[in-house]
C-alpha cells in the first residue's frame, strides 16, 4: 500500500528489492525520517511510479529513491519539512555533501523534473533559485579514466612478465621444435 513505510518490490522485480521510507521499523544505524517527510517521499515515489513517463523497471524506481533519500534524512535532522526546503538555503547547501559526485547531475535532473511537476505533485522541494545554487555548487567530477597505473599494479605486471619470459626461455627449444 502507498501509505506503508516499506514497499516490497519483489513481485515486480522478481528479486529481493524494497524501498524504505524511514518512518517505520529501521535497521540498526539507519537514519530516521519524520512522518511528514516520509509522506512527501512517498508522494515523490508514487509520482515516479504512476505519473507521466512512469518508471518501467523496479530497479529504476529504487535507484531514484536511493538518490534522493539523503535529502529527506537531512530535512528530518534539521527539523524541517522537505516541502519547505527551498526556504532554508543553508540546508540546500548541505545537500552537496550527501550526494555522490558521480551522480550529482542525475540528482539535479530529478530535482528539476520534480520542480517542473510541482503543480501535479502539490508541493515543491526546490525552487529555481535553490536549483541554481545546487548547480553552482556541483562538485568537479572527473568522468574520464586516467592513464595512471598504480605502482603495486605495475610491479605485479612486471613480475608476471618476467615469469612468462623465464618460462619461455626454459622451454624455448621445445617451443621451436613444436
Strand order of the largest sheet: 1-2
User: Helix tally?
Assistant: 9
Our Rg estimate from Cα atoms comes to 24 Å
What is the chain-wise order of helices and strands? EHEHHHHHHHH
Terminal-residue CA separation: 71 Å
Quote the beta fraction: under 5%
Coarse shape: elongated
Poorly predicted spans: none
Strand elements, count? 2
Helix content: 55-70%
Major sheet attributes: 2 strands, antiparallel
Structure class? mainly alpha
Give a written overview of the molecule.
The chain is mainly alpha-helical. It has helices at 10-13, 35-50, 58-78, 89-94, 104-116, 118-121, 128-136, 151-170, 172-177, and strands spanning 6-8, 18-20. The chain has a two-stranded antiparallel ribbon with strand order 1-2. The longest helix is centred in the middle third of the chain and has 21 residues, at 58-78.
List its traits:
178 residues, mainly alpha, two-stranded antiparallel ribbon, 2 strands, elongated
